[in-house]
């Protein structure tokens, strides 16, 4: 057991909740930063679902407010800082490009500055993303593949990524960047495609809906489980040297085939319910992503443990159970 202290931004999100659970199990003190714009809008549902809501010390604060970050760093006195907060929905980033740049791009720099000012020897993890590869330059993407961002979100994340590298090289800070491919779970937000599918299929099964409307079902993603991926975040900060790592499964699947797994789990015919709706197409698409996590396997001894099939089944089951209780 350890008595280390960790500060997590975005603690109320999917990854924040799983990471908080992991660190609490390891004996960390966990301080979480949650943006709050009214007295009631901090959503603790994910932390509650994992049974850790009362164990995380929550601080009001926002990545766009440097002073609040400095205060959080002073309060947490962290050994490790995980920057998971962002405007993270790719499609929204075309409608709110400036907010996305401020929270997702400059937000990371605010956190790095807060550490530089108040706790320069803390270890820092930046949530980088496979979206930075965008229009892919190599069939399998690794740490050395050139980037080609295809959305305001991806461009903001790329800025944060290079600033993390820059702070490591300029100020000798222990700053790591995890280039995580898509990762999902029952705690995924309903706007992302896997959860939209498992929730939508469960609704159809329960007679609460009749169709599921999706956009580009030919898009291919390398999908893993968030529970597995947060372990990689922690491992990165336990190494002797700070570095960047791709975290992925090495398998890619179309949205259509992922969707079929959910319909099969429900014993329903996909063709009877799936409707293609242009409203869900994006101004520019990332057609295919496929990650090579060889470096993480070798240096971190990290392996993904959950298959896409079992993850989608787990998500479908959780949605079915939640909706059955609600509709009684
Ligand atoms: P993504 O995730 O953009 O890859 O980014 P998302 O699940 O939103 O989209 C995946 C692919 O599915 C296609 N798609 C749809 N997507 C949504 N959301 N809704 C639909 O109805 C739909 N129909 C088809 C999309 O076009 C896309 O190709 C996620 C986010 O979590 C990022 O923050 C993170 O950085 C990356 O994963 C890794």
From TrEMBL:
<dbReference type="InterPro" id="IPR016040">
    <property type="entry name" value="NAD(P)-bd_dom"/>
</dbReference>
<dbReference type="Pfam" id="PF16363">
    <property type="entry name" value="GDP_Man_Dehyd"/>
</dbReference>
<dbReference type="InterPro" id="IPR036291">
    <property type="entry name" value="NAD(P)-bd_dom_sf"/>
</dbReference>
<comment type="function">
    <text>Catalyzes the conversion of GDP-D-mannose to GDP-4-dehydro-6-deoxy-D-mannose.</text>
</comment>
<dbReference type="InterPro" id="IPR006368">
    <property type="entry name" value="GDP_Man_deHydtase"/>
</dbReference>
<comment type="similarity">
    <text>Belongs to the NAD(P)-dependent epimerase/dehydratase family. GDP-mannose 4,6-dehydratase subfamily.</text>
</comment>
<keyword id="KW-0521">NADP</keyword>
<protein>
    <recommendedName>
        <fullName>GDP-mannose 4,6-dehydratase</fullName>
        <ecNumber>4.2.1.47</ecNumber>
    </recommendedName>
</protein>
<keyword id="KW-0456">Lyase</keyword>
<dbReference type="GO" id="GO:0008446">
    <property type="term" value="F:GDP-mannose 4,6-dehydratase activity"/>
</dbReference>
<feature type="domain" description="NAD(P)-binding">
    <location>
        <begin position="7"/>
        <end position="315"/>
    </location>
</feature>
